[in-house]
Design a protein that fits this description.
Two copies of one chain form a homodimer. By secondary structure, chain A is of the alpha/beta class. The first copy, chain A, is built from twelve helices and eleven strands. Helix content of chain A is about 40%, strand content about 20%. Chains A, B: One of its GO terms (cellular component) is cytoplasm.
């Protein structure tokens, strides 16, 4: 390991990393925190993403391959006490590994090209856990990209990173773009733009999902605003066969994205 | 309203209700707490379920129809101060309405009969938020019943009740039954028993979902144990088309339940 164990929670290195829990500091440093062995492993699999790694002695012993991968990539590894890890980690039971990572998002034009077949757009998604879950689901469904518009939560929020379970590092992610410009670009790229909303005239059972499709998902509580619905080619609702009033956002997104993925495979 | 406003958080009535946040007291009193206008409305729609209603003056003014429905049903309505509501509620921003409800679960033989076409079984689901979300999704997908086996979380846990968004009151729920007996009963009732697990040999794309189906969902972290997989007719995984390692439990359940619901409609 590089250097002796960090035991002081006020050490400049610890304070600099801890600040990244706040969006203003993330935006300033263009860096964020990835916690736990899975996220750290995925970060290290990408070139030039991991800035530094903090690890407890216990975690280093449990995951020697992660520490080796960091060293091989020239990433500084800082041994840290349990107290320092608890200070840095945002989880109740920290897993002893935490990386400072450079932003991974890419411009919209790079993420979505004429080859794209399935894209998820998060417009007005405010809960970071939901956003991360949709990102993970989009990855699982084989989406080509996930777009966080400027009215959505920060994809680098700690809860979002954790809920994405590594998917933030798997597929192109775009952030901070206006929804109107996003829709225009999606359409120019040959994608049909579907807004998922409980107010949809069509249900998932009666839209043709075979072609390239972009799905827009809205707010947990109130769905999508009129101006976004108006931008879409179709507004589509997930059919409710029972007595539930609605589905939760991440659930509805899963049903839509997998319906598209399955239609695409059946082509 | 019945009586003057409760302002003392140590009043016997308040203490008796607050205790229901704990499972041991719920089991003893065979009662639980339902918070917020949606859950209270659904509880009042069922006969003999609501024992008593606590409401702040503000919430009573905002939802007069709920207070009227309670009175019409002979349910005692207790005006409560904001402080008392905060003491009783398990949410950070209480919505000012909270009902004490009688247990609503039914025996397995009553919930699942030969008419059943879609049933969800929660085996080893430990996170109450996930369990409630699966219950809500099963309701939306038109399931006939949801079974919580004895190794799963308590359906009356406050987080589960809230995540179910009223669905706990919509369809027959069974709790505390052993998984083996449940599977035997499902099979006798004519249902094909599918275990959802990442280790499945078959994917959702190559199983026939047209007939009556029961889905068994496992633990968030480790899926289903061998002995449960062995009980199922098939072990089925949701296909991962991208690079995600897995789906989260509630997402996987949504994809499976909606795949069944859609196949059934397409018959």
């Amino acid at each position: 390991m590089a250097g002796s164990e960090l035991t002081n929670i006020k050490a400049p290195r610890v304070k600099a990393a801890k600040r990244l829990a706040k969006r203003a500091f993330r935006d300033r440093d263009r860096a964020f925190l990835a916690e736990g062995p899975q996220a750290v492993r995925e970060a290290l699999a990408l070139p030039e993403v991991t800035v530094e790694l903090f690890t407890t002695a216990e975690a280093a012993a449990r995951h020697p391959e992660i520490v080796s991968a960091a060293r091989a990539a020239g990433v500084p590894v800082h041994p840290a006490s349990g107290e320092v890890m608890a200070e840095l980690a945002q989880t109740v039971t920290p897993q002893g590994l935490l990386a400072v990572c450079r932003f991974v998002h890419v411009p919209l034009a790079e993420a979505v090209t004429a080859d794209a077949r399935l894209v998820a757009v998060l417009a007005h998604v405010r809960d970071p856990g939901n956003a991360g879950t949709v990102l993970r689901t989009a990855d699982a469904a084989g989406a080509d990209a996930v777009v966080f518009t400027d009215a959505s939560v920060d994809p680098y929020n700690g809860k979002c990173v954790r809920a994405s379970a590594g998917s933030l590092f798997h597929l192109p992610v775009v952030t901070g773009v206006p929804v109107a410009g996003t829709v225009a670009h999606l359409r120019e790229s040959g994608l049909r733009v579907l807004a998922a909303d409980g107010a949809g005239k069509h249900t998932l059972d009666d839209v043709d999902l075979a072609g390239p499709t972009a799905w827009i998902f809205g707010n947990e509580a109130w769905g999508l605003p009129e101006e976004v619905l108006a931008l879409a080619d179709e507004v589509v609702r997930v059919p409710i066969y029972g007595r539930a009033e609605s589905l939760n956002l991440a659930t509805a997104a899963a049903v839509c994205l997998y319906a598209s993925a399955r239609s695409r495979r059946a082509e």
